[in-house]
Design a protein that fits this description.
The structure is a single chain. The protein is an alpha+beta fold and about 160 residues long. It has a single domain, classed as HIT family, subunit A (2-Layer Sandwich). Helix content is about 30%, strand content about 20%. The chain contains five helices and five strands; from the N terminus they run ααβββαββαα. The chain has a five-stranded antiparallel beta sheet with strand order 1-2-3-5-4. β2 and β3 form a beta hairpin. The N and C termini lie far apart (about 50 Å). Bound molecules: zinc ion. The site of zinc ion has 6 residues, from α2. Zinc ion binds next to α2.
């Protein structure tokens, strides 16, 4: 059975110690994904290893914040506007049958939102997808990813 306890260093992680998302801010493409867009409050990356074309994460970019409720109302509004702008771009470019927005942070507690497109051949239609159905061991070829990222970028604000 899986170990379901929170890690020993959870409080430190939540406070931002050794946060991988803080480290990745402003660094462009990385092992997780290709940089699509930097907005006023968030960075958007298109995942390299996903079964779902268009799967992006939107990451809060002004320092370490674990909980969206810790943003002030103006920051929160701006963050969600950018999450929705990313979702709108994914809708237009990839035409999924549904989009799911997951703001979890149970592994990496830095505010980020997974924008998960759902497709007609979806293995979990009508319910949430398991991570195994989102992630892929094989990366999407770089040229395809960069073409897709450019398509998304063209539908996001300058
Ligand atoms: Zn962080």
């Amino acid at each position: 059975m899986a170990d379901r306890r929170w890690p020993e260093d959870w409080a430190e992680r939540k406070a931002g110690r050794n946060c991988p998302l803080c480290r990745a801010l402003g660094q462009g493409d990385n092992d997780f994904g290709v940089a699509v867009f930097t907005g006023d409050s968030a960075e958007v990356r298109l995942a390299r290893r996903s079964r779902l074309p268009g799967y992006c994460i939107v990451v809060w970019r002004h320092g370490h914040v674990a909980e969206p409720a810790d943003l002030d109302p103006g920051q929160a509004c701006q963050y969600w506007q950018e999450v929705l702008a990313a979702g709108r771009a994914v809708q237009v470019v990839f035409q999924p049958v549904k989009l799911n927005y997951l703001t979890l942070g149970n592994g990496v507690p830095h505010l980020h939102t997974h924008v998960v497109p759902r497709y007609p051949d979806d293995p979990a239609a009508g319910g949430p997808l398991a991570w195994e159905d989102i992630d892929s061991p094989e990366p999407v070829p770089d040229a395809d990813l960069h073409r897709q990222a450019a398509g998304l970028r063209a539908r996001l604000p300058d």
